[in-house]
Amino acid sequence: MARDSALPPESFEEILVWLNSDRDVAASMYLQLRDDLTKIFTMNRCSDPEWLTDETFDRVGKKVVVLRQTYKGDPRLYFYGVARNLIREDLKKVKTQASLEDIEHRAQDIEFKEETADLREECLQTCLEELSAEKRDLILNYYAKEKQAKIDHRAELAKRLNTSVETLRVRVHRIRNSLEKCIEQCLDRKAPRK
After folding, report:
1. CA–CA separation, 51 vs 56, rounded Å?
2. Which of 20, 81, 108, 154 sits CB 3.0–4.6 Å from 26 for a disulfide?
């Protein structure tokens, strides 16, 4: 899909400044955010994940000057919100363009997902049990709450562990990566093939 517009250099600079005042940290956050958005679009089976990632940055870039002054909180969350809206738009587009063959394949995909849902849960439990008690408790505690309670809980958890919230995020990220790999390997061994 061709791009209609590109992010102007000044908007790009504004996005970097919004992400972090340290340019090196901001650049690293930008690259990670691009990677995360592309993965989100891919996992949601969007038609063109790269294009949608660019579109997310374009849309934020158009508003970034105002956002920097008014938006409170982690700017990445705003990008994820825009991405969520783009996923909905993409799904609507797909629904209006679906052929009968596509519908048949989707029905098979749903059946396959239902079959593997129990396996995913089983693999998650198996992989959690393979973690050390400390890592298992940490990741379960980290994801225990929702919304504002989640933020407060994570701050408390970091305080209890005598560390910063950022360091806590890194620890949990590493645990989650190892869990995801374990689950993928487990599913490869157990999942029925389409």
Report:
1. 9
2. 20
Provide the whole-model pTM. 0.47
- Given a contact cutoff of 8 angstroms between Cβ atoms, the answer to whether 8 and 1 are in contact is no
Looking at residue 193, its pLDDT comes to 56
Name the amino acid, one letter, at 49: P
DSSP letter assigned to residue 162: T
CA distance 93 to 80: 20
Q: Domain spanning 110-194: which CATH class is it, in words?
A: mainly alpha
Closest C-alpha among 40, 32, 43 to residue 80:
40
Q: How far apart are CA 124 and CA 128, in angstroms?
A: 6
Question: How far apart, in whole angstroms, are the C-alpha atoms of residue 52 and residue 46?
Answer: 8
- Name the residue among 70, 184, 49, 173 with its Cα closest to residue 127: 184
For the chain, the domains span 1-97, 110-194
Tokens of 88: 């909905």
Annotate 28-55 with b (16+ C-beta within 10 A) or e (fewer): ebbeebbeebbebbeebebeebebbbbb
d(CA 82, CA 105): 29
DSSP secondary structure letter of residue 99? -
Dump pLDDT digits (tens) for 19-69.
999 999 999 999 999 999 999 999 988 888 999 999 999 999 999 999 989
